[in-house]
Design brief:
InterPro entries: Glycosyltransferase_61
GO molecular function, one term: glycosyltransferase activity
Helix content: 25-40%
Oligomer: single chain
Number of domains: 1
Largest sheet: 3 strands, parallel
Strand content: 15-25%
Radius of gyration: 17 Å
Shape: globular
Strand order of the largest sheet: 1-2-3
Distance between the termini: 32 Å
Length: about 140
């Protein structure tokens, strides 16, 4: 697809789901039709704190319904520890402390993890998201 074709397709999207990252900036291109509201589901990396505010604020500003699906189990995260600068700290204590959104280590390590969404523990969030879509669409 050319960039123009991609932009055209994104302007027609009313449901967008994806991993926390720059790709979710496509919220800006989503369909804006009050008769058929748009929805975003953001998957957030394990043990990160405050990451959802970036895209929830953007979605709210665009009048788009937002929901986060946090990865809450470490076994569902593939951590690239080679990005981590320990500075004499123990790896396990750094991992367990989690991350706030400060410093370059947040961007180099915490955000750069591959994740697996465990449907057995995430079903309720996905169901809530789908119910919200259905409820909202019934009103229009």
């Amino acid at each position: 697809m050319t960039i123009y074709e991609q932009l055209w397709e994104l302007s027609r999207v009313s449901v967008l789901a994806g991993m926390h990252g720059s790709g979710l900036c496509n919220i800006l291109l989503m369909k804006k039709d009050r008769r058929s509201p748009s929805f975003v589901l953001e998957i957030t990396p394990w043990n990160t704190f405050g990451t959802h505010v970036f895209f929830s604020n953007l979605a709210n500003a665009m009048n788009i319904h937002y929901r986060t699906l946090p990865v809450t189990n470490r076994t569902n995260a593939l951590l690239h520890t080679h990005f981590l600068r320990l500075n004499g700290e123990d790896l396990e204590s750094v991992l367990e402390s989690g991350s706030d959104t400060e410093g370059s280590q947040f961007f180099e390590f915490w955000i750069n993890q591959d994740v697996r969404v465990d449907l057995t523990t995430s079903t309720h969030i996905l169901q809530e998201f789908l119910h919200a879509i259905n409820r909202t669409r019934q009103h229009y």
